[in-house]
Amino acid sequence: MLDGAEGPAKQKAMDLLVRYGEALGAERFVGVTNIAGVPGSSTMFLHEYYKEHGGGSFEDVFSRFDLDSDETVPFPKVGGNCCHLQGGMDPELWAEQGMSREAFEHQQQDEAELIRHGVKLLKTCTPYLAGNMPAFGEHCAWMESSAVVFCNSVVGARTNTEGRESTSAAMLTGKVPDWGFHRDEHRRGTHMIQVDVPVESVMDWGMLGYFIGDAVQENIPVVVGKIGQPDLIRHKHFGAAAASSGGVEMYHIVGVTPEAPSLDAAFGPTKPVATIHYGPAERRRVYESLNSNGRDRNVDYVMLGCPHASIEQIGEAAQLLAGKRIRSGSSLWLFTSRAVKSVADLHGYTKTIRDAGGLVMTDTCSAIGKMLPEGTKVVALDSAKQVHYLPAIMGIEAWFGSTEDCIRAALTGRWAGELR
Ligand code: F3S
User: Fold this and answer.
1) Reported pTM
2) According to the CATH classification, is domain 8-184 in 3.30.499?
3) What are the residue ranges of helices labelled H in 223-364?
4) Fewer CB under 10 Å: which end of the chain, C or N?
């Protein structure tokens, strides 16, 4: 491939991967069969930039941005199981999100190209909820920190946190450097986390993840103690939070996650470098830090669905909103994937939420799309990850609590959440 025997696009892709592997000190490649990235997609900004620097077509952007090529090369069909992660706008509610028709039409063109080239348009940060669930031990190349930590920890598949360039190159070659989480020796625990307070609700799991990420940064926590069996939603919020306050790409929960049937298996031959306790005082401190940005209790926006909501979470929101009305002047946007929304539509959840004055949106979120209802000053969130990013990105105040706290804020316009 590097010699160009399989065409110029694969040659450019392999050149990029060789440079990447050399920078990492990798000695070989590993074959990847499941790749999640954002190949060739461009915002209007990127599109305009490349129009002036070599051409603004899908192939131009893919060649020059994704493959780091000085020339445009024909983009062949991708191999393997390749999907597109979250994008920039909802395909139906883009105007409500403040997007222009021009940007929407540009996105439509990108999507047509992706389908033509064999990339599945899942358009979500939760590909595992939308039709792409890797197998245990499968080597993957995924972007999106919350998806990566889920892939490694909950599924036991293997991926580093790849970037746009390496995932696009992997879609053409089926290879990434054999490094990091592809190798057994880099999947072992480093820090013991002893949990001394019950962790049950989704909000509790988000707070624990946020605490652990901050405590271990880019290391691998091994969690033991007063924790029950987390379901998929709890894993989703726990991992996303740990990947935000720190750079956690893999965790073990002894007796729960597949590579940690025992403490010995989680740590392997290495000893924990530290034991960190999480008790009532730490829990309160995390709650306060997640709410440290909130001052005005008048809430004008509630955002749910980070990472993208599961069907159960949409059902819960619909149940809490059924027959009620969101306060005039407030907005509620719930984000999910197109696949999950189609089930929510079937169940009537989307209509229930809409009848209450909320909107179910797909593909994106307020942080990724940099979009808020007009005039938003204070947001309420049920996701520690979103609290970490949205106030910083959009310059607004934020409150953190349970889904119920957030929906109450949407109905009353006031924040009344508290740590229970
Ligand atoms: Fe997904 Fe946006 Fe959160 S893309 S993980 S909902 S920051």
Assistant:
1) 0.98
2) yes
3) 232-245, 263-267, 280-290, 311-321, 338-347, 349-355
4) C
